[in-house]
Protein 1
Amino acid sequence: MHPCRVLFICTGNSARSILSEATLNHLGKGRFVALSAGSKPTGQVNPYALEQLAGAGMPIDGLSSKSWDEFVGEQAPPLDIAITVCDAAASEPCPVLFGDFVRTHWGLPDPAAAEGSPAAIRAAFHQAHAVITRRIMALLNLPVETLSPKELKSALDGIGALTGDGGSEAAA
């Protein structure tokens, strides 16, 4: 399983899944190939997401909002892991994707839904990216190449409980 192919899925594919894709591709250094998609893509990447990534020194070239339809059917690229990042706590519907890969859920409030001043919106994107980065770092520490699918699912589910402050969402 090298590189490990990971698809991040949300509804709009404009913020959380884009932040996740770019962060894993940057920090994964070829050990992982990250992709992202949405069930109802907005068609454009949120400019605050691009600003957050660029400010963190991560490449933003080639990022785009696209449909998950590209990842189903016989012509779809093979995947090892699919991670939904929608926020069930906000009653946001999470897409369901079928295939022979490990699935997990890393719920996260949508920073694109943040309101207020540009500074407040930037703060929401910064916080979301901090959580995503913490989770990505935990993923990078997993021996994904040697874990069984059941072990990998369990480890990924545990990562989904991590927040940016060192705690878990259940405790937050």
Protein 2
Amino acid sequence: MKEIEKIRQYADSLRLTLLKNHPESLIHEAQIDNPGYLGFTLNLLEREIKQRQKTDLERRLTLARLPKDNDLAQYDFNHSNGISKPQLKELRELLWLDQNYNLILMGPSGTGKTYIASGLVHDAVKAGYKAYFKTMEELLTILRMKEMTGSAMNAYNRLLKANLIAIDDIMLFPMKKNEAVAFFNMVNHLHEKCSIIVTTNKSPKQWAETLDDEVLATALLDRLLYRCEVIKLDGNSYRMENRKSIFNQ
């Protein structure tokens, strides 16, 4: 039908994705329910808004680059690691994010640092914030390549406009001087504009050794710790206590 094709074209021009992809079913549904002109228009616009919100959320979750496990509703409090259910609930309310507070999650491997960080990024994205999860290695790659490739520069510009950035395994490996300076410059630019979550298995005192520059480490910590909650996680590794086997139990 020519009318259907015109509807598709007009819907495409107006970015009405639902109407563009399903005009026949929407019209057939209206013919059966007979909602009237006002009801049909209102219903169509409401469904388009929901579809656009769903698509936008999916896009932002993809850009956040989250690990597979990030649903804090499934957090296992039976595994004691130093964070309580009320504390996690308060963090998930994201009031600290509106105040540009930072979080440092510090502790041995397997104590839930990455899970908590990625879960809070997931919550932030769902709440409408621009939030991203990066390993330190991924972040350093962006900083190294941003002057060379458009994709790295685009990723860097997105980070500069973020509301929340989680940096996983900071200071795990030594950094070259130019990488450390580039990282400091980014943190300095984001200072009091964006919340940063850091996961680390090293104390702040050990950062100077990793950076091989006590002055730079002090300046970096000065910005991260200014408005910051340091959460020390401990206990045994959750992964080791719940490791899987290829053999039947």
Protein 3
Amino acid sequence: MKKRVILGVVAGVLALTSIGFGKKENIEVNVLGTTDLHGIVSKDLEKYVNEQRKKDENLILVDSGDFFDMQTPEMNSWFKKNSVIVEENGFPILRFKDGEIEGVAPIVTNMGKLKYDAVILGNHEFVSNNKSRLDTLINDFKDNNMEILSANTYKSNNENYTKPYIIKNINTKYGDLKIGILGLTIKEVGESKEWDGEKLVPTKSRELKDQDGYEGKLYMNDLVEDAKKWVPKMKKDGADIIISVVHSGEEPKKPKNPGNKIKELARETSDIDVIFAGHTHKTIDENKYTNKDGKEVIVTQGGKHSEAIAHSKLQLEKVKDGWKVIEKSSEVISFK
């Protein structure tokens, strides 16, 4: 009789475990990332983002910078309307006129329609504007409910020029999930050029502090060193997972241009789960690296000019002290 009672109790515990206590509390997080749009938001990009939003109302959309350019008739027309021709080093160049700018740049409106959560400053945003014009551009993005980030860009008084990061709260049936998005920008925003007898050729890279229109106003720190500073603050601020969105390629293209530091960022930091890269116009489905704590970091990059988008998926499990990433992957969706 006692044996039957014990067996009955054990069976009851097993039944409860299979029904509730042993069930994994897992969710999926989808993050889409564009980069190097250079003024172009294609119909294919719009369609894909809108389709994914229907599947996941908590979808996150980010951009890794170099969104501002004249490569569409719409942007070209707007820029020329607000510009004058000036002479630099003996050559005529278009520059923004002084005073009021007429209308908001079309790229701001077009990106606003897609509801980007975070947009990172790329080098092109600096070289295509001066400090005053860039201030206005950033405010235009805010007015369209998009946050511009660059954690390693500072004012002359050592304050951050933009927000370094945001934390997005997602309500799930297992409790709130906090996703930290950290923005970083390549330190070398421009190039010095000289006339070789036929054309202007780059001679050396130029940091923001030396860029025309920004001297004495803005400067940048090394993006890897600043990531080491900001990530712990994001964790203290409650971030369960961290996505770094970076205007930088994976590794230096040449010795005089050491600013591409994605590999170093992945390997020399802690607590970054996914990195969305940019700047080099490449597509990267998924490159895997091991961080300083022996954990996996994946790197992905969505090409250029709205021709593709990176789609990262993270499987998360609810644990006692927050959330744990149990699986992550990424692929690039090409529209060509």
Protein 4
Amino acid sequence: MAAKVSSTSPKFTRDLPESRRQQLIEATARCLARDGLAGTSVRHVAAEAGVSPGLVRHHFEGMQDLVAETYRATGKQIAALLDEALAAAGPSAEARLHAFIETSFKPPLLDADLLAVWLAFWSLTRTDPQIHAIHAKVYAGYRRLLEEMIAALAREHGIAIETRQSALALTALLDGLWLEHCLDPKTFSAAEAAAIAHRWVDGLKKGS
């Protein structure tokens, strides 16, 4: 899962190197969302950003490096959005779990462009060692957060929960619902997807 891809092309002046790198990453995300992995190249990213291909190569070794950095940046954006929602939910583990679910099924995380970008990353996970390593790190952090909240939920309600397996199950449930809804929103609504996940957490709380 990732943040909404901006449709505004960046304007380059005398930006700092990190600012330029970020603008190129955002341009890459827009290209991936619109044209897919096969239609995204250094030339296309340069055109999207309004710069020369040489400037792209100055900041990145090539498309492999640029896509990897875009994956890393997208993962950080998602983590920041989820952290913000959890902070607003307060200290209750149950409230935090439900906030995590609600945020997962609302914009900017619930977005067809984000799906297109995420699918590009997923498609490289088995063949690109760098992407595989980033994927492992992103999802390890995602599952670790869920494990911590599930363990806290168990303490709050005085029940025994297998936290690792429960976190794996909830991750699969959220990813599956998110993917299916983005592929075909007519199948079920975002509210229905969230309700399914909320009921799963309620069942976990009851020990079922």
